[in-house]
Specification:
Blueprint (H helix, E strand, L loop, with lengths): L2 E9 L13 E9 L13 E3 L3 H4 L25 H13 L6 E4 L7 H10 L3 E6 L2 H10 L4 E4 L7 H9 L4 E6 L3 H10 E9 L19 H4 L3 E4 L7 H16 L7 E5 L4 H9 L6 E5 L4
Parallel strand pairs: 4-5, 4-7, 5-6, 7-8, 8-9, 10-11
Antiparallel strand pairs: 1-2, 3-11
Helix pairs in contact: 2-3, 2-8, 5-6
GO molecular function, one term: oxidoreductase activity, acting on the CH-CH group of donors, NAD or NADP as acceptor
Keywords: Oxidoreductase
Organism: Lobosporangium transversale
């Protein structure tokens, strides 16, 4: 029987705030039996995906959709399809119409950058927020957003900045990746009968005192739709349409996609912390090995 060495990221204990390398996430070498049984294959990982949903599995309690990590357990991660997430949620839940306006938070991130480009293809005016000036320039100059702002550097407040950029016509769809103060501002500015697509709440994931949104009653008085989802909610028909359309857009160069690549499995804990702190610029990926 032959044994092979394999390095793994291991969950150490639940964090109350940010998961720290060496305290909550560690690296260990494990032996793997590479003697295969009938119909088994041995794979080699070349890269892995870092996604905010993993933080929910570190809370020490069962998530509504996935099991939580237990101390000593190897971190396993599902392949998350940001493209399908963006496409399915925007078109099926947002029901965008040409001439409308959409506001996207974390707009330079894995999902946000695609939502914005797809929205533009369908004739929407697109406003985005991000956490640095270079990310804002990426939204404006490369993704061709109509307006964008750095929420960390607003002269007044997120609310006033959003109201100014939306103008008298407001906006019709809010694609929420962050929750918190930005969600509160969006509820204030969004038009009556607007749609809020709830994709993530990263501003609250690592806080023991989450931001208390104070205007939820306006969901009622504005007749808003607030729509949460899981990516597997969407039908096979939507998946087929996505694969056909988005593949063609990518091949034609009509959609671009930015990745934030960290090299080396040993750097995964630090890279994941950076993702939760907003230090990534684009989709967070760890390169483990070459072909």
């Amino acid at each position: 029987m032959v044994k092979a060495n394999n390095r793994a990221i291991v969950f150490l204990k639940p964090p109350t705030e940010f998961p720290l390398p060496g305290k909550h996430l560690g690296i260990e070498s494990q032996e793997v039996d590479d003697k295969l049984k009938e119909n088994e294959v041995l794979t080699r990982n070349l890269a892995l995906s870092l996604d905010p949903y993993l933080r929910g599995r570190m809370s020490g309690q069962k998530a509504d959709y996935l099991t939580w990590f237990k101390p000593g357990q190897t971190i396993d991660s599902y392949v998350v399809g940001e493209g399908f997430t963006a496409y399915g949620s925007l078109l099926e839940l947002g029901q965008p119409k040409a001439g409308e306006t959409i506001f996207i938070s974390a707009a330079s991130g894995a999902v946000g950058q695609l939502v914005g480009q797809i929205a533009r293809r369908f004739g929407l005016r697109v406003i985005g927020s991000a956490g640095s000036d270079d990310k804002v320039q990426y939204l404006l100059n490369e993704l061709k957003f109509d307006a964008a702002f750095n929420y960390k550097k607003v002269n007044k407040s997120i609310l006033e900045t959003l109201r100014e950029l939306a103008g008298p016509k407001g906006f019709d769809i809010y694609y929420d990746n962050v929750g918190g103060e930005t969600l509160e501002a969006a509820i204030e500015v969004i038009n009556k009968h607007g749609r809020i697509i709830a994709c993530g709440h990263i501003s609250d994931y690592n806080s023991t005192q989450p931001y208390a949104v104070k205007n939820l009653y306006k969901i009622i008085v504005k007749s808003l739709k607030v729509l949460g989802f899981m990516v597997y909610d969407f039908s096979t028909e939507v998946r087929v349409r996505f694969e056909k359309e988005v593949t063609q857009w990518l091949l034609n160069g009509e959609i671009i996609y930015k990745e934030h690549v960290t090299v080396g499995l040993e750097n995964t804990p630090e890279a994941f912390l950076g993702l939760l702190q907003g230090k990534n610029f684009g989709k967070a990926v760890v390169k483990i090995a070459d072909l």
